[in-house]
Write a structure and sequence with these properties.
The structure holds two protein chains of two kinds.
Chain A (H helix, E strand, L loop, with lengths): L4 E6 L3 H25 L15 H29 L14 H15 L14 H26 L5 H4 L4 H4 L3 H33 L3 H7 L1 E5 H4 L1
Antiparallel strand pairs in A: 1-2
Chain B lengths: L7 H7 L4 H15 L6 H10 L4 E6 L5 H6 L5 H10 L1 E5 L7 H14 L5 E5 L2 E2 L8 E2 L2 E2 H10 L3 E5 H6 L12 E2 L10 E4 L6 H14 L12 H4 L10 H5 L10 H4 L18 H4 L45 H30 L14 E3 L1
Helix pairs in contact in B: 2-3, 2-9
Classes of the chains: A mainly alpha, B alpha/beta.
Chain lengths: 225, 372
Amino acid sequence: MSTVTIRRIYVWDIPVRIYHWVNFVALGVLAVTGYLIGNPLAIQSSSEAYANYWFGTVRFVHFAAAFIFIFNFIFRIYWGFAGSKYANWRNFIPHTREQLKEMADVIKIDVLQRKGKPLKSIGHNALAGLSYFICFLIFVFQALTGLAMYSKMSGWFFTKWFAWVVPFMGGDESVRQWHHIMLWFFVIFAMVHVYLVFYHDYVEGRGIISSMAGGWKFIEEDDRG
Amino acid sequence: MGSDPITVYEHAMMKGYSRRDFIKMCTWLGALMGIEASGVGRIVKAMEVKRRIPVVWFHFQECTCCSESFIRSSHPIVADILLDKISLDYTETLQAAAGYQAEEALHQTMQNYKGEYLMLVEGSVPTADNGVYCCIAGRTALDIVKEAASGAKAIIAWGSCASNGCIQSSKPNPTSATPIHKIIKDKPIIKVPGCPPIGEVMAGTIVYLLTFDRLPELDSTGRPKAFYSRRVHDTCYRRPNYDAGLFVEAFDDENARKGYCLYKMGCRGPVTYNACAVTKWNDGVSYPIQSGHPCIGCSGEGFWDNGPFYQHLASFPGFGIEDTADTVGKIAAGVTAAGIVAHSVVTNIRKNKLHPNSKPLTEMPNKQEGVE
């Protein structure tokens, strides 16, 4: 076997990593509090209502986390234009022949486990990029529906901009319903996302898990020149 | 009737009410509409001077609960006068005339007061099969609505039927029951949804039109803001229980007895805009939540399709009746977990063949360096 030289590449710059972990915390909090808002715990209490506020607190935490999530996401969109080439929006929307071929290869080799030349995507592979793009669309959807429901109890002009979503979607009840359904998208996305990171680290050994902490990935030199 | 409409005040005097009664009614109506005390004079003036507005009131696909609610608006003069005050020239439920006479009255109003009369519509209009599912005097509702609307000054869509289709437009909507605003586009339309709307809200809306000669302030979906700008939830006396996280779990549990929040029993208060918790029903006696029943959201669009009424989340289309988005989500998450397990097993079986990189370091040559 010939010598393999491994090159260290700085893939995720600091803003991307901060975005990722803020998003991780915000989405975790949003999913848990969101589920609780839809299915509150059954509590029997000997105290009167004025002595408690736990459900109000859960809702407050949900709204606070939502605003952090939204502005963090807006920042990431900006960074998709201003950031490094791995953070660029082009990674998320497959629009070149190369990306389409890579997508097909990822499906063939990683998903279906067929034989092929091992893949070496440095940033996101094209399929992962597309899945994050779909995720971003659902971020937008959750932000729109959430702000629309919130606008009725807020005096802030920013939330009022989104009041139109309610009549557009046929009333508050259906906005609530769809907002709730999308919670499950995040649950499933998180499962698949975490699994795939472990999978890639396990079969490729390029340090994909730690890359979101330190920013570095390790790529075999001889193939990438 | 209707050839020389007199003022509301004259009409009240004719009926034997005192001026005191009349002023009391004006004050009461002002309070109802949310008009400040200094504005009551304008109401009095309007009632004294303005001639009664000729009104035609149509009934299409509906159950007449709006009319029933309206004639029970709690103030005695409202019950008595309001129906007279507006010169109700045509309404199937209450008119004395029948058959040709009734149709004659309708056409006279429409001709004599073209561009002036108020058109009230109770019920939705079926549009399937050229509208044959609702015919009056040999004509389809669709036809009648179009003709009457062309000469109307404004239209009030009474109740959920006329505002958003209500039960007859719920899936699969066999007659294509259609709310008025989707048929008539060129006239101002005030929606007063509810199944039925509160009588006082109906009265308040009409009196506003009568007093100020313009539409009340409407929200983005065309409902008067005075009555529909706040959620039942926000004005509900059980709201502190919601914030405290104290919920009724079953209709016969201790929590229900204590009057906890009905959120988990499917209460639609948080998504329903109406004045129920403020104005209440039957002369201010109560409203559904006060009686221990969750709000079913009857003034909301498509509320029949968002059932079952007694669970928080609507059932998910294509699954069992009781299955919510959560059931579907849990199944999807389970399938995903199974897929992940299967994929990881296959990965381990085929790993060495497919992924040369994954060989442990010890099998790799010794000379490994990280080069920047």
